[in-house]
Amino acid sequence: MELYGYPLKAKFNQPRPPPPKVLPATSTVAASYKNRIPYHPESFSHPWMPNSYYKAAALNPTLAPLTESFPGLPPTQIIPFVSERPNGVFTRHTLDDWHRFNMTNYKESETARHNAERLRADLTRTIKDVYQQAKRTQGESTKNLGERVNDIEYWKSELCIELDAMIRETNSLADMQKRLERALADTEGPFQVAHKCLLNREKRMGIDLVHDDVEKQLITEIKIIRSCRERLQQCLDTVNSQLMCNKEARQELEKDLADKQMGHHIDSKCYQLKNTSRGIHYFRGVERIDATISVPETWARFTDNNIFRSQSARATSAKLRASTESLLMGTADEMWRQFSKVNDAFTGRITEIANAKSKIQTHLAKTRQEIFQIETKIQVIQKTIRDKEVQLKVAQTRLDERTRRPNVELCRDAAQLRLVNEVNEINETLRNLHQCLRASEDMLQMLVSSKGVLEHDLVVKNNSLFIDQERCMGMRKSYPSTVQILGYV
Q: Cα separation of 388 and 379, whole Å?
């Protein structure tokens, strides 16, 4: 039984086992050492053994003289070798020397044991301190990793919130972009309608080809539509640029979030590693490799800058959406009010043309009636002239026959005088009747000319009414509604 505190016996003091008769195969030996970790001098997994323990075995016995075996002792202190003693006893030391030697050994042994106990206590305290320091250091590292994981989770949540808000804002701005494109496309129809109305009104004839209020309102409508189209196009370009900014900010957020997720996964894995975890290995020199490119301040500032950039882009996008909505409402209201003005102008002009047409038709009917009456009167005058001519023939025939009376019978009697007066009266009447006939025929020509003018003016009014009422107003009935202009459908 060995005393507690004494070192174990060296392995070379034990008898060696006999070597096996058959050596194992090389493949078997290689397989047995396949998964072994190579020996490292710094490893603490092997038991500690003092190097001084093996120094006693290093002294090899020799047959040299005793003075050579103890070179440190002077020759006077060397016990003389006595070859012969009484009673055949061979002695080197006295009993006192023996007792002193034993006491010295006891004291040295006690001192060695005391030193060993103190060393063991120091080693125990050192090992305890090492374990506590290692535990404290590892705990601080684990705590720092946990704080790092919490920081990453915080910024991950902030990035997720901002990314969701940016996605919603981008989708809203994309919807506004589609509304702008539809509104811009819907303005093409009213522009073409107003332009065609102007072209159709150029086909009016005669006096109706006037620069009236309808034409002025149509020109104003074309100017307003062109101005609205330019403003909508500028707003659409701005929205497209803002969409690009939003997409860039979103890509930065997504990239940062992906990096945060990867870092969170790695740090969480490191945070959960323990001394008993699997997959831990030596990585020599890894502590001397500094692959970091940021510090906590720059790391947090980078994510904060990404979030601030996204927030700024969202605020700009929200203002742009509000201004775009106001622009859509303003342009739609402006175009609609001008559209109503043009329609009112068309309605008023159509009413004027319809009233003029009605008056022309009334005058034309009266003119035709008057022409009929004049023609009837001309026929009466012509019949009266014919009747008067017959009377004139009778009176002149009588006078001519009475010129053939013989001699004294050629008397200027009352009958003769009356016949002469009758002829004169008939001639005068015929002259008056011919004057009336010429006047009636002139009046008939004037009435016919007036009828032609009225009929031509009626054709002009019918043409203008057809252009304004059928063609122009027929096209303007298909004008897009306010909902279509605003781009809601």
A: 14
**484/92 Cα distance (integer angstroms):** 131
Per the domain annotation, does 95 fall within a domain?
no
The boundaries of the domain holding residue 361 are 352-402+412-486
Say if 62 falls within a structural domain. Answer: no
Q: Where are the beta strands (DSSP E) in 312-413?
A: none
In a domain, 375, yes or no: yes
Closest CA to 142 of 44, 43, 275, 257: 275
Full-prediction pTM beyond 0.85? no
- Integer angstrom CA distances of residue 328 from 177, 235, 323, 335: 11, 10, 9, 11
Q: How many domains does the chain have?
A: 1
Model confidence pLDDT, tens digit, residues 19-75: 444 444 444 444 444 444 444 444 444 444 444 444 444 444 444 444 444 455 454
Residue 90, in any domain of the structure:
no
What are the backbone angles phi and psi of residue 215, rounded to the nearest 5°? -65, -40
Could you tell me which residues come within 8 angstroms of residue 154 by beta carbon, excluding any fewer than 6 positions away? none
148 neighbors 267 (Cβ within 8 angstroms): yes
Q: Report the alpha-carbon distance of residue 77 to residue 448 in Å, rounded.
A: 180
Query: Do the Cβ atoms of 354 and 465 come closer than 8 Å?
Result: yes
CA-to-CA distance for 14 and 387, rounded, in angstroms? 185
Q: Which of 135, 155, 142 is nearest to 269 (CA)?
A: 142
Residues near 67 by Cβ (< 8 Å), separated by ≥ 6? 73, 75, 78
- Axis crossing angle, helix 414-465 with helix 296-402, rounded to the nearest 10: 170
Q: Do residues 181 and 486 make contact, with C-beta atoms less than 8 angstroms apart?
A: no
Task: Give backbone dihedrals phi and psi of 167, rounded to 5 degrees, phi first.
Answer: -65, -45
